Amino acid sequence: MPSTKQPHRFSLMGVSGHVGSPDGLFLLSSATSAPVENVKLVDRVSPRRSRVGTLYLTATHSIFVESEAGVRNETWVLHSLVCSVEKQAAAASGCSLLIHCKNFQVLHFVIPRERECHDVHLSLQRLSQPESYVELYCFSYKPNVGEVERRQEWDLLDLKADYSRMGVPNSLWKLSPINRHYKVSDTYPADLFVPESAAPPVIVGSSKFRSRGRFPTLSYYSKDNHAAICRSSQPLSGFSARCLEDEQMLEAILRSNPRSDFMYVVDTRPKLNAIANRAAGKGYENEDNYSNIKFQFIGIENIHVMRNSQQKMLEVCELRSPSMSDFLEGLESSGWLKHIKAVLDAGIFIAKAVAEEAVSVLVHCSDGWDRTAQVCSVACVLLDPYYRTLRGLMVLIERDWVSFGHKFSHRCNHLVGDPKEVSPIIDQFLECVWQLMEQFPCAFEFNERFLIAIHGHIYSCQYGNFIGNNQRERIELGVRERTHSLWSYLWMNRADFINPLYRPDHSQTQGLLRPSTAPYCFKFWRGLYNHFDRGMHPRQSVEDYLQAIQEETQQLHDQLASHKQKIGKLEQEQVWRVTQKTTTLDKSPTAWALGNDLTVANTPQDYTGDFISSSPCQPKAPESSLILLPHDLNQKSEANLSNGSDQESGIADLSCRSPLSEDSTRDPDSDEAAYSAA
Amino acid sequence: MNIKLIKYGVMEFAELIKTPRVDGVVLHRPFLPTVEGTLCLTGHHLILSSRQDNTEELWLLHSNIDSIEKRFVGSLGSIIVKCKDLRVIQLDIPGMEECLNISSSVEALSTLDSVSLMYPFFYRPMFEVIEDGWNSFLPEEVFKDLESMTDEWRLSEVNKDFSVCPSYPPLVAVPKDVDDDTLRKVASFRHSGRFPVLSYYHKKNGMVMMRAGQPLTGTNGRRCKEDEKLINATLRPGKRGYIIDTRTINVAQQAKARGGGFESEANYPQWRRIHKTIERANVLQEGLIKLVEACNDQSHSMDRWLSKLEASNWQTHVKEILTTACLAAQCIDREGASVLVHGTEGTDSTLQVTSLAQIILDPACRTIRGFQGLVEREWLQAGHPFQQRCAQSAFSNNKSRQEAPVFLLFLDCVWQILRQFPCSFEFSESFLVLLFEHAYASQFGTFLGNGAAGRAKLSLPEKTVSLWSWVNRPQELERLTNPLYEANSLVIWPSVAPQSLLLWEGVFLRWNRSSKCLDEAYEEMVHIIEYNKELQNKVNSLRRQLAQLETEDPLLQTP
């Protein structure tokens, strides 16, 4: 089992679960400050279900250990995932500490003494705001993996292989060594594909006419019809400036698509923003200066608008028992889904230009690392079924985001820095993919869990992949030499991330996806933004059910083969006594049949728990649970304590926003409040 | 096409049909290719049949038509037909006169007032009735189940001629110690004579759920000893109960002025009263109209869509109804208390709550047959006025009178629970959609009439076919079965957080988007499950073969 290779230690982030005592002991000894006793972890949704325990701060995690007799229940939160720590005014019950995480987990601790709360607050603030890269978790994360294997992790994905899968280099596109030492553009990767006819002086000249030297270069090439998606930053055109080399560069791109007599230039910014940029000597292409281009604005808002929008949406997600109107009004006024739609619309425009018109497209925004990355990668997902596979999506993120210099460190706030640089641009890309998965349930090899896992680790800093802002920085930091790769971890655990409905030969899987962009096709992504509010999610998962069935089907295949073999043997030989019971025979189907597992899956214990526990046979290493979330043992135990029977535990699981809070049912006089609150 | 059927219709409704047949009519439906063919009007159907063999015919019940609009471009007329199942189609009809004739005929035929002219009275089943649905859920049979669990209840015939309560069935379950005279007195104290009756018995702890109409306390606080006695008779010694009033306290207060009211705690000391906020019929109808309008306007921006969705308040209604049902279920199951549910008449919000609470509490209600039984008991026999409520749907221009999507909201809530517990229901979403369709327009008599007395007068069992007769045939059951179903004996508690409640796309967006990809996903899911079963059977048969070989084997060697 691949996952066992990954050690448990330090692997949990923001997870409440049961960790074996050896790990626990290890952690306690490495605690950086004295443990704080009698801390209350408040259940945000139903406050009466809060838990009391001890809070430990280690160098890398905050760990809350519940002090309920009999169960050992731990909640781990990686410091690098902490987005903000807020200390509230002291009350009679203690002093509240509110921790918001980048994976949208919210923890509310109540610490009895203000002094202690103050200390924890200060420590956490320091620990969660690293100032230099070396402090990041990926540099201290040392799973039990040999150096040779660790190096191999980084070889899992090979961008060159992806380019050759696309069909380049060929007679139209060549690999250019011009940026080998990051001299032309320090935010671009070393290896870039350019039109065959683009000579180095043209490239260099063009790069001087583009923000941050980000000249037009190949992002995706369609083998079938030679149409290409190219990307760049904005031209430094100001009000009237021209650049011959830049014009030649676009001409060269057009020529690399022999059958086409024009190309699109897509500026993903709202027109007003682009015009405003002209005053700063930047701007957009003038159709008169470039031969045979069709220029198009697609109004996607800038990083600041997106940041505020997500912030507003998260506030709505965090409301305590909101009404339907509160929620829908908040969702609307956040504008979030409108922005998601804008990104998807832009992706569709480009994908259609490439697939249906066979016309090449040059995409840019301002710097060409935010909206451009979103739009190019969404277009790729729509265009090419490969990017809808597990490996394909990883390659796509590695190419369009990591290699092309999306500023992960700034956008994800890995280090303490300018808060105005932070923006959920990659979140929006992942959400666009999720929205597409909702419309095309059979078209994607991976499941929602995969997207959530990627999201969590982009922010966790546990792996080196998203450290720094571009390739050059990552080389300087030596992430390949000093850290582990997320892609390898995901690949080894791919069994958890497979969409059971995916079939490579399904008609839905083939060719261009044509999603509907009617507003009602866009949904709120509960799975990500309310990921940790378990009570809001369906209690039974169709996907897990199907996954379990497929695993069983696999076993049946084996059984079938072995039975056939046995029968053949018996019929042929018909001589010797067959020993009665071999191991395979022992396993009568009913012994492991799905039926049994489903009975379990239908009991509430499994809904609350980690999805994986419902798959019949494989115990998973906690590694996988980190994305999947709580083995919510606390809920189980609570249910068991209060009720004592299987039947009743179903009720204790009635979580969150159902009408009565748990405890109120034991206390009739307090009900009124609970009912009216509901 | 069934010629006999058409002729019959033509004879009966001849004077309403001005033009029975037009050639060269073109049908437009969203996401489907256009069809050209001959349009025929019969007494009950609008039929479009194409001359090509491969194209399916359109058969539309006139009673399914909610509104009809005419448009003319030159001599080409179009009628836009908006159906109660929320489908919108366009028919291009050559010739202005034909178009006008068709339009006015359809308008007349789709708004016939007389129940006895409805299609179910003319429909003859073209399938073999295996089990007559009219006899499938008789109260006396249902009561036998109750008797096997408890002897605290009896079946009263006090309403056998509908004189005590016209909306109740002739047989109702009441506390054993309460005699029929008392029931009569209580009936005079409750709205429309709806005295408290048993709705559900929770086997696990013996707690019960009852439903009734509002007490007629009026402004001067009238009380009724018999009423107090009756509902107290349902409490175990020392136990308390909950009265769930589906109205806000303000609305309940206002009802006093019109002779209604609520149980004062002074007179019912063993009961705690809780007020909830389920909206009244006309508000729900308004919500439906707004929601459907929002869903049908493709030109909306995201902001406008979300604000219209919000303004329709549909999801708010779903949340309120579900929350109230959860509350009732929780009182019964968690608190071990009995519950009495009522609103004003006790025929709308009350039934939503009592039926949903049973879905939550009782695994039997989550089976196909159990759900039919629930609809039969808690909606049809309990006197929900289907005909009034479902006379119009979201498009009608006529001023709505008694129309309200009370039953549709119930189905929506069931769908929400089904989404949250996709493996706990024996039926799939298509069963809920089917019930929605048939409640509004049907060839079956099941949803005709208003209340038990009204339905009895129509002699439905004698003159019409029951929907259940059709549903409970193997081929239909197979279509409605949820392939993921695994019996779940637990109480299932849905989440009522706004994030958990979704728009029921299967009804509201059904005609506004292509469902191809989702249908394929469903087929793929069925395929995965079927393939697994197939393999299981193969393995089992091989195992038997193997076992046989193994036992035979020694014998073979002995000689």
Automatic annotation (TrEMBL), chain A:
Q: Which InterPro entries match?
A: Myotubularin, Myotubularin-like_Pase_dom, PH-GRAM_MTMR6-9, PH-like_dom_sf, Prot-tyrosine_phosphatase-like, Tyr_Pase_AS, Tyr_Pase_cat
- Looking at the record, the residues that make up the Myotubularin phosphatase domain are 153-529
Give the record's GO CC terms: cytoplasm
> Compositional bias (Polar residues) at which positions?
636-648
Give binding positions for substrate: N302, I303, C365, S366, D367, G368, W369, D370, R371
The active-site annotation reads C365 (phosphocysteine intermediate)
User: What stretch or stretches form a coiled coil here?
Assistant: 546-573
What are the boundaries of the region Disordered? 636-678
Q: What GO annotations for molecular function exist for this entry?
A: phosphatidylinositol-3,5-bisphosphate phosphatase activity; phosphatidylinositol-3-phosphate phosphatase activity
Q: Does the keyword Ribonucleoprotein apply?
A: no
Which PROSITE patterns did the record assign? PPASE_MYOTUBULARIN, TYR_PHOSPHATASE_1
- Listed transmembrane segments: none
Cite the entry's keywords alphabetically.
Coiled coil, Hydrolase, Lipid metabolism
Give an example GO biological process: phosphatidylinositol dephosphorylation
The record's listing under Pfam families reads: Myotub-related, PH-GRAM_MTMR6-like
The UniProt family comment states: Belongs to the protein-tyrosine phosphatase family. Non-receptor class myotubularin subfamily.
Its recorded name reads Putative myotubularin-related protein 7
Automatic annotation (TrEMBL), chain B:
Any one GO CC term of this protein is: perinuclear region of cytoplasm
Q: Where in the cell is it found?
A: Cell projection, Ruffle membrane; Cytoplasm, Perinuclear region; Endoplasmic reticulum
The record's annotation in PROSITE patterns points to: PPASE_MYOTUBULARIN (PS51339)
How does the entry describe its membrane topology? Answer: Peripheral membrane protein
Keywords for this entry? Acetylation, Cell membrane, Cell projection, Coiled coil, Cytoplasm, Endoplasmic reticulum, Membrane
InterPro entries, sorted: Myotubularin, Myotubularin-like_Pase_dom, PH-GRAM_MTMR6-9, PH-like_dom_sf, Prot-tyrosine_phosphatase-like
Q: Report TM segments.
A: none
- Spell out the Gene3D superfamilies in the cross-references: Pleckstrin-homology domain (PH domain)/Phosphotyrosine-binding domain (PTB)
Q: Is the keyword Hydrolase in the record?
A: no
What is a biological process (GO) this protein takes part in? phosphatidylinositol dephosphorylation
Q: Where is the Myotubularin phosphatase domain?
A: 133-508
The GO molecular function terms of this record are: protein phosphatase binding
> What family is it from?
Belongs to the protein-tyrosine phosphatase family. Non-receptor class myotubularin subfamily.
What protein name does the entry list? Myotubularin-related protein 9
Lineage from the top down? Eukaryota, Metazoa, Chordata, Craniata, Vertebrata
